[in-house]
Amino acid sequence: MNIFKLFSVLTIVMFLVACNSNPAMVSYSQRSTASVSNNPDVMIMQGNITGLSNYLNTMPDINKKTDGNFTLLHKAVMFDKPKSAELLIKRGASPNSKGMIGVTPVFYAKSIIMLELLIKNGADIYIKNDSGMSLFYFITEPVVIRALIEKGLDPTDQGNIAVSPADAAKQVHKAYGEMDQNVKDNPAVKVMISNVEEKIKILEAYESLPELLLLAKNGDLKELRVLSKKKSLLKTTNSSGNTALHIAAQYNQLNIVKYLSRNKTLLNATNKSGKNSLDLVISSKSASAKYLSCQLNKYCKNVTSFDKKITQACSAEKSTKQCLPVLKQDIHGVFAPANAEELVLRIRFNESCKKFNYIKCKQLEETSSNPKYERKIFTVMQNNAPRIDKRFEIACGITGKKSSCLSFIKTYPGYKSKPEIDTALAYLSQKCKIKEDGWIYKGSSCNAGFAHGSGSAINNDKNLSYSGAFQNGHRVNGKVKYNGQPMYDGKMKQGKPNGLGICFHEGEPEECKYYEGKRVDSLYKQRIEMAKQQKIMDEKLAKMQQAQSAQYKQMQIQMRNTPAAAKSKDFGDVIIEEGQRRVVNKIFDSLF
Predict the structure, then answer these.
(1) Do 220 and 203 reside in the same domain of the chain?
(2) Is the pLDDT of residue 576 over 80?
(3) Does residue 303 lie within any of the structural domains?
């Protein structure tokens, strides 16, 4: 069997072990001395942190290798259990301990959360196994593959291996195709096949670069100069939207980076994920990353309250619309690009704009672009007011002024204790509207009476909030929170998540994909399938253990009637071992 056939088999076996929580990983000695529930592998799979912590107190060497030459950290990563992995690392588990065929735990990373946890604690993502294979030969989760590429790893690096990671993935896919149909029909195996197919697409996109990008990747400055005069540097991109500067930075071709970064438009160009060249490599700390960071800083000054540009733009006679762009430009490059927008809105706008221009800012918040109101608004107010009287009708009637209406509502007895009044008040205070039911616009950027540009909105009925981009009254790209907790960050269409984005599972971020409000990414489908398989396994395991217990009691009764000389002192151990073997085999057969 050649190395890639072996790799195919290993991939399948490791996935089955991880996804189906196979108790067969319990060692022979453990089977004869402890129940499945006291096995650390099962504790990791079930997320039993307390039990695992107690077990580790009795374990002299946390980096000890057991089944398959794996440490417990290897298994925690295989099962994608970040909390168990975090506990093991805190207790001294090495993220770079090599297991079977020289692979470290990071070779089995299945999620961004696990990948970041391992990197944070010193895992070497540039490491190769004993055969010279990089992570791209082993990892199949598309979300992890994209993350590694964004961190600067070369997806085409094949070292001394005869075939590239993309070709190796094709051989794995071929091996899946040769399986029996009943195996391929298993939902878990379908997810595996889908992941490998997506992996092939990602890796092939980097192997078939346009000539201009290929020159940038290889550092051929002379040829790139000639070709760049004929080809558009901005329009020539790969499937991810990366320009020649993105590619040069990713492969740390410093001479190319220096040449291309003279073009300010190219320097700030973003790919399909909204990342510029610096965003793509900022965590690599490479020479290219440092150079790009310095270049971006040259186009702005440090933000201070004494900056003349801020003073001029945000003085009392100027508007907030002039103030905010200056702050955005000024802050970019001083802080990490990803945090620039947040810092502008949360820190500099409050400290600078309102400091220099409090009256003007206040006017912009309370002044409506439309002096008249639709009858629907007043119907809402009248229905929710504590009492309907002449004062309300005069202040908030069709002919009334907004300032009179708002003033009346704010002074109306008990209005603060009425959430519906607050909602109606917020609705009245909108500078413009959103074309989505239940949403109230809190921003000031409008076009033709509808939200357009950067802003925020709330939906009190569903305890939702949104901050990000609007287009003609619709939310199109931003962050959604539920009760103040992050829920989704990404593109939207007609009020529903649509396309790639970041979701939050148990408070942790993960890459996800939506289609018209329905989540369709493989990680989500795999989680659902794994939950189903886990439930099936738990039910079958419980039944098998009951049957095993009954069988053991029956054999004990038979033993009492057996002459002493015929009894084996290890007979009880043999019964337990045989029972557990049957449990494992039946569960495995039922799953496949």
Answers:
(1) no
(2) no
(3) no
What element of type H or E holds 501? strand 496-505
Instruction: Please name the residues in contact with 294: beta carbons below 8 A apart, sequence gap of 6 or more.
Output: none
Range of the domain at 468: 375-523
> Across residues 331-342, what is the average pLDDT?
35
27 and 138, same domain (yes or no) = yes
Q: Is residue 562 included in any domain, yes or no?
A: yes
Q: Band of the pLDDT at 579, cuts 50, 70, 90?
A: low
Contact present, 88 and 79 (Cβ < 8 Å): no
Average pLDDT of every residue of the chain: 71
Q: Computed from CA positions of residues 173, 174, 175, 179, in that sequence, does the dihedral angle turn out positive or negative? A: positive
What are the CA-CA distances from residue 292 to residues 112, 151, 201, 255, 383 (Å)?
A: 26, 15, 29, 12, 58
Q: Which residues have CB under 8 Å from 215's CB, separation 6+?
A: 223, 224, 227, 244, 256
Q: Is residue 189 part of a domain?
A: yes
Q: Looking at the structure, tell me whether residues 242 and 353 fall in a common domain.
A: no
In this structure, the number of other CB atoms found within 10 A of the CB of residue 553 comes to: 10
- C-alpha 38/C-alpha 44 separation (Å) is 11
Question: Is there a domain that residue 463 lies in?
Answer: yes
Backbone angles phi, psi at 454, to 5 degrees: -80, 140
Q: How would you class 462 by CB atoms within 10 Å of its CB: exposed for 0-12, middle for 13-18, buried for 19 or more? A: exposed
Reported confidence tier of residue 420, pLDDT bands at 50, 70, 90:
low
Cβ neighbours of 433 (radius 10 Å): 17
Question: Are 109 and 215 in a shared domain?
Answer: no
Phi and psi at residue 97, in whole multiples of 5°?
-75, 130
Percentage above 70 pLDDT, the chain: 61
Q: What is the pTM of this model?
A: 0.41
Q: Would you give the distance in Å from CA 540 to the centre of its chain?
A: 33
Predicted pLDDT of residue 388: 35
Total domains in the chain come to 5
Whether residue 560 sits in one domain with residue 454: no
The DSSP annotation for 91-112 comes to: TT--TT---GGG--GGGG--SH
Side-chain half-sphere CA neighbours of 504 within 13 A: 14
Read off the pLDDT of each residue in 36-54 and give the average, rounded to a whole number: 85
